[in-house]
Automatic annotation (TrEMBL):
<dbReference type="Pfam" id="PF00005">
    <property type="entry name" value="ABC_tran"/>
</dbReference>
<keyword id="KW-0067">ATP-binding</keyword>
<keyword id="KW-0813">Transport</keyword>
<dbReference type="InterPro" id="IPR003439">
    <property type="entry name" value="ABC_transporter-like_ATP-bd"/>
</dbReference>
<dbReference type="InterPro" id="IPR027417">
    <property type="entry name" value="P-loop_NTPase"/>
</dbReference>
<feature type="domain" description="ABC transporter">
    <location>
        <begin position="7"/>
        <end position="236"/>
    </location>
</feature>
<dbReference type="InterPro" id="IPR003593">
    <property type="entry name" value="AAA+_ATPase"/>
</dbReference>
<keyword id="KW-0547">Nucleotide-binding</keyword>
<dbReference type="InterPro" id="IPR017871">
    <property type="entry name" value="ABC_transporter-like_CS"/>
</dbReference>
<dbReference type="GO" id="GO:0005524">
    <property type="term" value="F:ATP binding"/>
</dbReference>
<protein>
    <submittedName>
        <fullName>ABC transporter ATP-binding protein</fullName>
    </submittedName>
</protein>
<dbReference type="InterPro" id="IPR050763">
    <property type="entry name" value="ABC_transporter_ATP-binding"/>
</dbReference>
Amino acid sequence: MSSDPILSIRGLRKSYASGTEALKSVDLDIRRGEIFALLGPNGAGKTTLINIVCGIVTPTAGEVLIDGRNWQRHYREARKRIGLVPQELTMDVFEPLISTVSFSRELFGRAPDKAKVERILRDLSLWDKRKEILKELSGGMKRRVMIAKALAHEPDILFLDEPTAGVDVELRRDMWALVRRLRDNGTTIILTTHYIEEAEEMADRVGVITNGELILVEAKDELMKKLGRKILHLQLTEPLQSVPPELAEWNPQLSENGNILTYEFDAKADRTGIPSLLTAMRDAGLGFKDLDTKQSSLEDIFVSLVHEKRSAA
């Protein structure tokens, strides 16, 4: 994966006449050949950002560079380099599947190429259904057709806006495998998702957007290392009614049945507080039968980041 950005977003803003700021001066570089996951709650600005880059929505300010070239001045070339799988299933439902995919290829100025269209349909397990009318396909198959349409003109950059929303777990995993294959073949992929495990499973880097503001961009592994906290579970020998005052400084949480004490700590800190907590428990006459630690997930990190941003506002 090259460190050169294939896509550079600079000072991108979108305001509406109502005064709503959908995007607040977003700066972002996407590296060639990476999978970048954009996370954010509903209304955070994810789809607005994608639609501006894809030329569907006009920004209030800012610019987008594709390989250093402005996407508005070189519009036709930019659109040829970008593929979009939108959230909504939009297609001519009375067309045979193969016709709509072939048309998408030619729409972006690519010469007809039956072999390439066949390869895309085979990769997406759609070849056997190529003559079927779109309205007769299941929701999951329609989602695959949307991806096939976006890939038909062989874009360098592929945007997937909530690509697995509303599909079953098996199809979601198939799509993850497909996205990895696309990346291995050199396609740069930007996906928005509500499924945190999707970002955790696939992304090289993660961006978090909330209220139109990009609040963090980080390599996924670094993010989880830096922000991931660990949780210690202590299974008590005897249940407690409440946390004893002797343990108050560690602020442990007690489970509803009183059998488990939970202590959250920073795994990177010089002093985790665990030895002193265990000593205080022993001095208070509290025994435990078992203990384990759990690394916080990307979801825990995401929720805490958005909460911190809202609190600061």
